[in-house]
Design goal:
The chain is elongated, with a radius of gyration of 16 Å. The chain has a single domain, classed as Thiol Ester Dehydrase, Chain A (Roll). By secondary structure, the chain is α+β, with helices and mostly antiparallel strands. A hairpin with a 2-residue loop joins strand 4 and strand 5. It is about 20% helix and about 40% strand.
């Protein structure tokens, strides 16, 4: 069994359309915040990764399915876990829920790149910190 990262999000007025429903693109922001907090929870940040390793983590692809709407002042939870990993990238599944209802499901392909945008090996130090959060599937 793999571990999960959890991040709470409250829906503010700025996140909604004129009807008080979360605007679809804002779910991507919620997912990004959750991934950033997941990095912080293992002792890293995007800035620290750039400064210490000369690497960036970029989104190569995102598959998102909107299942239900969230509304103004809803309290949401983003659950994130690493589904699989390669030498230079990993796939993270993220699920946004409101109470017991699934609002959004996303699969995000994240790649480590150097400052020139070329894929690079995930630093061993970061790999080992993420290891408890990997699902059983590890690709080579």
């Amino acid at each position: 069994m793999h571990e999960n990262f959890f991040h709470k999000v409250k829906v503010y007025y700025e996140d909604t359309d004129s009807g008080g429903v979360v605007y679809y693109a804002n779910y991507l922001k919620f997912l990004e915040r959750a991934r950033t907090e997941a990095l912080f929870s293992i002792g890293y940040s995007n800035k620290k990764i750039k400064d210490n390793f000369g690497s960036l983590i970029i989104v190569k692809a995102c598959n998102i399915e909107y299942k239900k709407s969230a509304n103004l002042e809803d309290e949401l939870t983003v659950r994130s876990f690493v589904k699989s990993i390669t030498k230079t990238s990993f796939f993270m599944n993220q699920i946004i829920t409101k109470a017991d209802d699934i609002i959004v499901e996303a699969q995000v392909h994240l790649v480590f790149v150097n400052t020139d945008g070329k894929p690079v090996k995930i630093p061993d130090e970061i790999y080992s910190k993420f290891k408890p959060y990997f699902c059983d599937t590890i690709k080579t």
